[in-house]
Structures are given as C-alpha cells and as structure tokens.
Amino acid sequence: MILTVDIGNSHTVLGIHRDDKILQTWRLTTRSSCTAEEYQVIVDQFFAAAELNRAELTGLALSSVVPDTVQPFSRMAENFLKLEPLIIGPGVKTGMNIRMENPKEVGADRIVIAVGAYQKFKSSAIIVDFGTATTVSAVSEEGDYLGGVIAPGISISTEALFDRAAKLPRIELDSPRQVIGKNTAEALRSGIIYGFAAQIEGLVNRFLQEMQPDRANQQKTQQQKKQDIHQEQIQQEKQIQQQRIQQPGQHESSEQPENSKNYKEKRQLNQKNRSGKPGETQDTPDRPLIIATGGLNHYIVPETDIFDRVEPHLSLEGLYHIARLNKIV
User: Could you tell me which residues come within 8 angstroms of residue 53 by beta carbon, excluding any fewer than 6 positions away?
Assistant: First the structure.
C-alpha cells in the first residue's frame, strides 16, 4: 500500500494506492506552519476514518510546491509511519524528458500531472491544472514535457478584484444564468466564470497551433478546397440556367448532361464533407488530448466543451507511477 501526497499552495491532497488502484483520497487546507505532530494527527485520523491500517504502508511519494512543508511532513513520515519519503525534485527518476531551458526550475506539481497524463493515456496532451495558479502544460506524443504557461488562478484573481474594488460585493462563484448580467452580482459571476473559460479556450487553441503546425496548414488547405468547390458549383448553376433560357421549349431528359452529373457528384461530396456530429473533424490527424485537473476545475469545465477528459486525481496517479519507477512500490 502506497501513500501519495501532493502539497499545493492552497490545498494538500493525499491518496492511498493498492494494486494500481486509488483506494481513498483526502483533501485538506495547506498550512506552511503545520508541524510534524499536526501532520501525524491528521494522517492518523484519516486512516482511522477510512478503516485502513497504516502499518500496511510500504512507501510514500511526496510532491510539494511549498518548501516549508517538506521537512515537517518528511519527519512525520520517518518517525510516525516509519517510511523514508520519495520527494519529487531534481535527480528523481520521472521517466519524462523535460525539454525546458532549465529543467530544474519546473515545479514538481507540473511534472507529476504531466507524468500522470502520459502514463494513463499514452498520448500527446494539453493539461490544464486549475489551482492557486492556472497552469497549462504540453506533453508530446513521445512523452516529453514541452513546457507551458502559468496564469493567476480563479481564487486569487477574484480575491484581488474584491480587495481593490471597494464597491464590488463579494459573491459566491456559481454557474451564470447568461453572459450579459442584469445586476452587479450577475455581471461579476459572468465575467469571472466565462472570462476564465474563454482564457482557457484561447490558450488551448494556441497550444494546438504550436504543437501541430502541419495540422493547422492542412485545415487551411481543406478550407480553401471547399471554397473552390463552392465557386465551381455557382458557375455550373449559372451555365445550367443559361441553357434553360436559351432552350425554353426543351424539357430535361432522363439522361442529364455531363456537366450536370459532375455538379451533382460534387454537391454530394461537399455534403459528405459537412456531415458528422458537432465537434468532429473529417480526415484530420488526431490532436493532443485536452485534460482538466485541479481542485477548481468544477467552476470552468461545465462552461466549455474544449476538454476531452476531467481527471481530478492526475497528480496522485503521476506520483504513484514515479514511486513505481523508483522501486518503492
């Protein structure tokens, strides 16, 4: 049984794994002042509530973006759980090539979710992590970490707005009824939720353009071909109308002229190109999988159709894979 711990700026998530499955997860508020003894009480209560025996633990993998939490949690693991934690950082095997100018500066949180995504889907991916900061990470088809962006998160952005704008009321974040707000609270709610949704849609589309330049060029070529076919159809329709005007007494025969046949075939082909369910692309290569994760994803995911998957435990799954790679499972 393995314990994985992801300590973020706002929340800490813990998971229990057995036989490649997550048995239990817990979430608590991150406190940089938390002591080893406090961590001991918290972990002990979690295990008791879930009726799990901590003596069955054989390993612990820890990722933290809050440096002050690493030492007390490690001390708790060594003294209380009798385990030496695997702390994700430079020198730890992750199985992922970090294609950054300075790989050491990439946050452990971004690496573990990228590892989790690639190991789960074996595909190129764009991963959006909704946390204190909103991060977007790119993973190649070969499983390399390509880089990403870091933007202010939903909570800290709204807090900054409320702190700086004295007359704006604090509101509960919820799904807006419509984009155009009819009062101040609705306008705030719409601006925050739809604003962040549009931000993510824009970033993801830009990621796709950079990760798949050949695909973007192919889509442009296909669009140009459709326009050419449409123009040719218009010209053929004009020719048919002119023939009917020049020969008003002649009825259409059962055998249509060759140009009419070509027009009909091309119209059917064009109709076929337009067919398919919304969101489907015809004759285009597969694109990177777009994945949402993080504790605040539930605010944005329902308001956009850009995501293929929602994986709330991606960081824990990445930690578990790294633990296996480093032979502590």
Answer: 47
Which uninterrupted H or E stretch holds 11?
strand 11-18
116-173 pLDDT tens trace: 999 999 999 999 999 999 999 999 999 999 999 999 999 999 999 999 998 999 988 8
- Catalytically annotated residues: 109
Contact 299, 154 (CB under 8 A): yes
Q: How far apart are CA 287 and CA 141, in angstroms?
A: 10
Instruction: Decide: residue 235, CB within 10 A, 0-12 exposed, 13-18 middle, 19+ buried.
Output: exposed
Environment class of residue 69 by beta-carbon count within 10 Å: exposed (0-12), middle (13-18) or buried (19+)? buried
Identify the DSSP state of 64: E
Among 207, 191, 189, residue whose Cα is nearest residue 291: 207
Identify each DSSP E strand in 251-313 by its residue range. Answer: 289-293, 309-310
**319 contact partners, CB below 8 Å, separation of at least 6:** 4, 5, 6, 15, 61, 62, 63, 88, 112, 116
To the question of pTM greater than 0.85 for the whole model, the response is no
Check: CB of residue 40 under 8 Å from CB of residue 80. yes
Tell which wins on pLDDT, 256 or 175.
Answer: 175
Task: Give me the DSSP letters along 120-141.
Answer: HH-S-EEEEEESSEEEEEEE-T
The separation between CA 183 and the C-alpha centre of its own chain, rounded to angstroms, equals 32
